[in-house]
Design goal:
single chain; about 180 residues; alpha/beta; UDP N-Acetylglucosamine Acyltransferase, domain 1; 12-stranded parallel sheet; 8-stranded mixed sheet; about 15% helix
Length: about 180
């Protein structure tokens, strides 16, 4: 079975919590820290070459997503309990705890998504934009659409918990295949 591609950059190896799920074909490069019970899914790339990437506990980064850093002193900071949908591009920005980035969305350099905020599927959040707590932004370029409802916020938390569980299940299956 294939193993994730884990590559040091300039002598710095990624640091991955022992209970995180890393898909067999994920690629993780350089100064990346991945927290406890996080899940990095199939075909995800985390490339920390000109700055660093931090991924919090219980955060999930779904299939095909690219996480990179800005060459202008721009790390990518992803807090605890963050949901990132399939094929997103996360570049030199900050995603606070409990935030959500939808499928195929792009979050650019120095953009900031606060706690319990959402960037809709397909949105393009331009550099230096800030999505405030509880807001939904969508479109290209992304703009404020409305405040999130309580049921949506509850759903985001349930999604995080669900991905922790499924990540643990995948890790168990892959460990059995490898042994």
């Amino acid at each position: 079975m294939q193993k994730p591609v884990i590559i040091p950059w300039k002598g710095v190896w990624p640091t991955i919590a022992v209970d995180a799920f890393i898909a067999p074909n994920a690629t993780i490069i350089g100064d990346v820290h991945i927290g406890s019970k996080a899940s990095i899914w199939f075909n995800v790339v985390l490339r920390a070459d000109v700055s660093y990437i931090r991924v919090g506990d219980r955060t999930n980064i779904q299939d095909g997503t690219i996480v990179h850093v800005s060459s202008k002193n721009g790390p990518t900071l992803i807090g605890n309990d963050v949901l990132i949908g399939h094929n997103a591009i996360i570049h030199g920005c900050t995603l606070e705890e409990g935030s959500f980035v939808g499928m195929s969305a792009t979050v650019m350099d120095h953009a900031y998504v606060e706690t319990d905020a959402m960037v809709a599927a397909g949105a393009l959040l331009a550099p230096n934009k800030r999505v405030l707590k509880g807001q939904l932004w969508g479109g290209s370029p992304a703009r404020f659409m409305r405040n999130l409802r309580d049921d949506e916020l509850t759903g985001m938390k349930a999604g995080t918990a669900g991905y922790v569980t499924i990540g643990e299940e995948y890790r168990s299956v892959i460990d059995k295949i490898r042994s």
